[in-house]
Amino acid sequence: MPHELSAFGIFVSPWLAACAGACVLAPLTAWLLNVTEGSRFFRLHQWTFLAMLVVYACALFRWGW
């Protein structure tokens, strides 16, 4: 697995790509939880969103983004 990703000749860290993906997936998940009223099971919504960001970033980095 390469240590850097190439985007149009610019090398970026895999963590940057994983965090960018997490910044897209976490709001979508939060929106889905709000629409389906699943967010009522969480008391602190801000901490839940931050936890989703961390989980998505670690998962995307682990599976090769």
SSE string? EEHH
Helix count from the secondary structure assignment = 2
Shape estimate: elongated
Number of strands: 2
Oligomer: single chain
Contiguous runs where pLDDT drops below 50 for at least 5 residues = none
The largest pleated sheet is described as: 2 strands, antiparallel
What percent strand? 5-15%
**Structural class given helices, strands, pairing?**
mainly alpha
- What integer is the average pLDDT? 89
What is the gyration radius calculated from CA atoms?
Answer: 14 Å
How would you write the strand order of the largest sheet?
1-2
The percent of residues in helical segments reads: 55-70%
State the distance separating the first and last CA atoms: 10 Å
Essential attributes:
2 helices, two-stranded antiparallel sheet, mainly alpha
Chain-wise SSE layout:
Blueprint: E1 5-7, E2 10-12, H1 14-35, H2 45-62
Helix pairs in contact: 1-2
Structure description:
The protein has 65 residues and is mostly helical. The chain is built from two helices and two strands. It has a two-stranded antiparallel ribbon with strand order 1-2. Helix 1 (14-35) crosses helix 2 (45-62). It is elongated and about 45 Å long. The mean pLDDT is 89.
Summarize the structure.
The chain has 65 residues and is mainly alpha-helical. It has 2 helices and 2 strands, in the order ββαα.
